[in-house]
Batch of 3 targets.
Target 1
Amino acid sequence: MKILLAEDDATSREILATQLTRLGHTVEGFVDGETAWEGFTQRKPDLVITDWIMPGIDGLELCRRIRSAPYHSYTYIIILTAMDRKVGYIDGMSSGADDFVTKPCDIVELTVRLRVAERILALQTHVNRLEGLLPICPRCKRIHTKTKSWEPVEAYFSKRTEAQFSHGICPECYETQMKPQLEMIRRRRG
């Protein structure tokens, strides 16, 4: 997985990045929440591991920003905390965290949590792919909607996007359908 690591303590960041890399992940570390946010917007990682308490933007604010970002794919977020997990657990979950790991990280516990993250991200990818499927009639090209009706493609997309449609005939359809019809009309007239 592509992991973004936000940890203001250089030693902790280096140790954790090394452990994650040994587990086969690609890791990029950031020294605070502000640079982590900039890194997130540029790199769109699969997973973010963030320290709870950092100068400037803390882990909770970073979570809120990630959750409010308009990206299609889901980012799994783990908050690192030196506090007992029950303290502030609701605040962390409310800001968008998926999981918590107590510092210093136990590598076995972290490995298990990363596997859970991988499963959830795989399921999310699968759901997104399924939601992206549009049942379409091969004959009339109408789309079967969630309301169980069949809607013309143009109407379907016009309601859901800002897309504008204009019509034309592709070269293949012209050669296989239009041209023979035009030739037949010319023969009848001529």
Note: The CA atoms of residues 93 and 99 lie 8 Å apart.
Target 2
Amino acid sequence: MSEDKPTQAQAELLLRVYDLRREARLRAGRDWYANNFAPKTMQEMQHLVPPGSDENAYLRMVVSYWETVCALLNHGLLHEDLFFETTGEQYMVWVRVEPIIADLRKMFSRHSFYHLETAAKRYEKWWEKREPGHVQRMRQFVATPQAMQGQQPPQER
């Protein structure tokens, strides 16, 4: 745990970030992503999210939401301990997109998903410091929709 305490502004921003997750279309996108998105290749991704489809809109909505939230974290606007103690979905989003990140960066920008990746690495270090082995269990748990269905997440404390 870090020595510094979250500020009132950081707490309020975290609550606002949480509140935005409840927006109906984003909630539907998050549900779709968690239950369906785990491509291992660009071909699989293109099949899952064809241009113009609701699935394509869900993917863009979910990853851009978490990229933005992770940018807030990486720029120090969100308190790391408070964020990681209360949020883990961003890590699942990263683990699911990671197998195709090189191809996505070739298609779009070498900076695509920079904040999501940076936050994921921070999250892994944060957990390993507190509970060695947790990251490996969490990665296995969030890697595929099938792995998450009907299972309990790894103990967090």
Note: The two ends are 13 Å apart (CA to CA).
Target 3
Amino acid sequence: MGDLETIARANLWMRTASRVIVRIADFRARTFFELERHAKKIAWERVLQPGQPVSLRVTCKKSKLYHSDAVAERLAASIERRLGAESRFSSQDGAVDDEPERDAPAEQLFVIRVFKDVCTVSADTSGALLHLRGYRQALAKAPLRETLAAGVLLGSGWTGKTHLTDPMCGSGTIPIEGALIARRIAPGAKRRFAFLDWPGTSPWLWPRLIAEAEAFQLERCPVRITGSDRDQGAIAAARANAERAGVADDVEFSVKPVSALAESGGPRGDVARGWIVTNPPYGVRIGDVDRLRNLYADLGNAARRARPGWTLAVLSAEPRLDEQIRLSLEERLRTRNGGIPVRLLVGAIPAESGKSKTAAVTTP
């Protein structure tokens, strides 16, 4: 429950959500007559301008009303009658986290769910998906969404108060999101949201919240954050992304393989302990698992050798590769990355390391 300021703060500060949607109606409908009767009572004008393009994303399950396009047509007609102007609309059946078309007009998205004859109508407040922070224009292979990178960091238990390193950082999303967390920078501060165009939104609301966010953020990162990758092009992309995110001075990037993970140390923060957080290749194609065994073994070896007493967090899709790390890792969460089911695995790196333990993890 909340008002427009609640909506604004959610979009400004939420690091892991794909969208913020608000429920504007909830009713039972088993016939199109019932659907139309309830729809005409919805105050569409609270979130729409007359003639504004509309996108209706409808799903129907276990209900008498099972034709999603027919439901969308009735609701679109209700909008036109209520606002007194024709609203162009598109109907999409499916998930609510699809990428928008690059050159599409500014549409207001409504998410309609008909489940067991109950129709729930929600208005999207975000517009473009929340992972589009605006800084990640240079990409490496298999980029990690910003929202998922933040979720991995927070799910691992990292709080922004200890050293962070990613030895397979790609285009730098995990270290950059870490710097944003550590400096208390609002992830949505550099973009625009759909609710800002709603009737009744005060023109002073957003500038006031941005001023508050800027006063809350830290001048510099209080801990050392590093990222490395063996791909020189990926590191160049990471540095460019960090510059756009405003954290170029807060993250140290270098070109090196996982096996060269350096000894802990640095000028800032408590470096006696910290987190290794990484998103290694998954090996989803035939033959990839065998090829990646040594990479995962190198990660485990380097972690034990260079970061005893630290915490390791790995986003993984393949248990056979997890075994090569040879550390006790527990599952913290499950989600999907690019349609691939993945798990966040987290565990402590033993404080005592020895040559025998290191040698035991080598693979043919």
Note: The chain has two domains: 21-124, 146-183+218-360.
